[in-house]
Amino acid sequence: MSLTASPLSDDRLHGLDALRGIALLLGVVLHTLMSFFPVPIWVVVDDQTSPVASTIFFAIHLFRMTTFFLIAGLFAHMMLGRKGLWGFAKDRLIRIAGPLLGLWWLALAAIIAVLLWNVAIQNGGSLPTDGPPPPPLTVETFPLTHLWFLWVLLIFYVAMLMLRAPFALLDRNGGWGRMVDRLTAALVGPWTPAVLAAPLALAFYLHPNWTAFFAIPTPDTGLVPNAVALTGFGSAFLFGFLLDRRRDLLERIRRLWPVFTVVAFGTGAGALMLAGGPVPDLTPVTDPSAKAALATLMALAVFSGAMAAMSLALQLFSRRSPVRRYLADASYWIYIVHLPLVMVGQTLVLGLAAPWWLKASLVIGGTMLVSLITYELLVRHSFIGRWLNGRRIPWKRQAEPAPAPAE
């Protein structure tokens, strides 16, 4: 088998396309909940808080981006086989590097504007004049914001192409490819999360200031991602890349959904308790023995959650669905624009006399409504849709020509 072969058709991947969209859309929920934590961790702090909000956050954060990078690796291999090296590079430059360079500064400006608005509200209607100066813009302090995942994807794409090149040159007879495929097949089973978790557990343990509640530290600041993120997300991306070479193994993963799901709930609950419980303990773990146990369990929970999400998506969403396809297409735009909208919603509900869950629902609902309207009106049927999703959907499809009358 060649280094770009995929034995099964793309029709098997509706579930994974839906899961990729779900992972992005869950970002709206994740960032909304940060305002309602029982301990302050976010720039907008509501007076209505709950440990339920932090527990839901923990569950989502545990598996969401690891799952995203797993699927991204699988789709990267698929696209490489379909488009070739230069076609792949061109597509990724347009659809990943382009939005990062073209929309990051707009997202950052909107976030700063909402931050200043919130500060003015907290300061009685005017901005304070004695605030600290902003940090200097360096490689270590560069604010990637919530678009960090695009930067990390680009790093993985470059690393993938560099590492793949010598194997492609040496694997003329397919021997290396067959060995890799056998190893991938041996990796897939009930033991998959444990094998994938081993490097991440070591990275957790070696991280000097690891806050366990947040599992993999988000590399949203600085152009050099932290070692834990590179290890966890990189392992997921590589596994997805190799898995597309043996797409028949997706059926084995699908059948294991009960095992992965039970293990994910069990390890996730245990990791939450060891990390301090629903009320987050934000101090770094320092005791070596406690850190070793927590790092092992947390890493297993991360990959159990990712494999459970993948297997459930294959089990539940593998049939074609116009609604899921629409939301999957829209998810990229929604994620790009959602954070300033979430912050606006969080600020608007600050003075609302309502329980936290109602406030959170209003913020999530309002953000999704604005995002979907702008997607339909500004993105889906325009050049922006072609830019982000690779195609522009016409406003009205042309009717099929009538068949010629029989002579």
Automatic annotation (TrEMBL):
TM regions (residue ranges): 21-44, 56-80, 101-121, 141-163, 183-206, 226-244, 256-275, 295-318, 330-350, 356-378
GO MF annotations, alphabetized: acyltransferase activity, transferring groups other than amino-acyl groups
Stored Pfam families: Acyl_transf_3
Keyword tags: Membrane, Transmembrane, Transmembrane helix
Acyltransferase domain residues: 14-375
Alphabetical list of InterPro entries matching this protein: Acyl_transf_3_dom, Glucan_succinyl_AcylTrfase
Protein name: Acyltransferase 3 domain-containing protein
Organism: Brevundimonas halotolerans
